[in-house]
Amino acid sequence: MIRSDAKSAARDSAERLMGVFRTAGAVPVETELLQPAGTLLDLYGEDIRARAYVTNDPLRGELMLRPDFTVPVVQMHMDGGAEPARYTYAGEVFRRQETDPDRPNEYLQVGLELFGGDDPAAADAEVFALIAEALAPRRLRAAIGDIGILMAAVRGLSTTEARKAALLRHVWRPRRFRAMLDRFGGRQPVPQARAALLAEADPLRDLGMTGKRTRAEIEARIEALREDAAAPHISGAELEMIDTVLALRETAPNVLAALRDIAIDLPTLEPAVRQMAKRLDRLSDRGIDVEELQFEASYGRTSMEYYDGFVFGFTIADRPDLPPVATGGRYDALTKVLGRGRGIPAVGGVIRPGILLSAGEAA
């Protein structure tokens, strides 16, 4: 199949998938192809620049080719959408693929986003079930997770608020998170350069002020590093609990039972565990076989930067080489950032019909 035919087939599939979401009450929306880079950089820092196509406009400033739909749809809704609301959309998104040249840098996304409502577990279950319905009866493997459980575990650690805040910032960067956790727990030494800096009686004595930070900012940072160096290590028992949570990978009911046991020693987990139990009940109400549904505690930590609760994905069972066909999850915190302090419950997901087509599946 030539490329133009593949695009045509993907667009036909997108129309059919959107039809499932429109039948469920979702309103079709569109977003600009060029998005303000500042919004995305504020959310993700410079990490996003390496994965996006960036350009400059003499009037609008720095812009990015749309790397996804969720952020602009959230921005649109928070700027004046009524609640509750549900939207669907379809269109191209663009991601640079410097490490994997075989993956497309332009592909079609079809999505569903739900805003508001007073039962987050029911909304989570609805989005998952609607995407499962849209993709049935293909040979897909479903998996769920909950980043909120890991975040709740971090908040329960017996350590400084600064350390907990640092760990929470890097939940979506597993290597950094692990290195930081090991250092806070004494498993890894303080980096030599930092140790040498803190050993100086006057670290700023020979420092030339040529950067963007002021002397006061640098002094505050050094003081924060000294306070961190003086803080006691996170206990071995607490590190083991975090390791146990991260390693959970079983059917959802078995993971729920394990988390209930962990919550006895780590009470900050209890609200997230109760929400997980409620979500499984709502999924069951929608006909999902939760007894066989796989739960992976670390699911979504490398590719879903703005999700902070329930996450899910659908992959082709016998094609581990391909990216997920669909992903999604809850992103309440993102609405608060884009709503300038006013947050609302929100959950959504996207389908990539081109992946089904590339695997020889009818999309």
What is the CATH topology of the largest domain?
BirA Bifunctional Protein, domain 2
Named at the architecture level, the CATH assignment of the largest domain is 2-Layer Sandwich
Terminal residue distance: 15 Å
Structural class: alpha+beta
- Number of strand segments: 12
Rg over CA atoms? 22 Å
How many domains is the backbone divided into? 2
Biggest beta sheet summary: 9 strands, mixed
Mean pLDDT: 87
Subunit structure: Homodimer.
Keywords: Glycosyltransferase, Transferase
Protein name: Histidine--tRNA ligase
GO molecular function, one term: histidine-tRNA ligase activity
Q: Explain this structure to me?
A:
The protein has 363 residues and is of the alpha+beta class. It has two domains: 3-153 and 241-358, BirA Bifunctional Protein, domain 2 (2-Layer Sandwich); 163-234, no CATH class. The chain is built from 14 helices and twelve strands. The protein has helices spanning 3-23, 37-44, 70-78, 120-135, 147-155, 161-169, 174-184, 192-199, 215-230, 236-247, 252-265, 270-285, 332-338, 353-358, and strands spanning 27-28, 34-36, 54-57, 61-65, 85-94, 106-115, 140-146, 249-251, 294-296, 310-316, 326-330, 346-351. The strands form two sheets. A nine-stranded mixed β-sheet has the order 1-5-6-12-11-10-7-9-8, with helices on both faces. It has a three-stranded antiparallel β-sheet with strand order 2-4-3. A hairpin with a 3-residue loop joins strand 3 and strand 4 (61-65). Helix 6 (161-169) runs antiparallel to helix 7 (174-184). It is globular. The two termini are 15 Å apart. The mean pLDDT is 87.
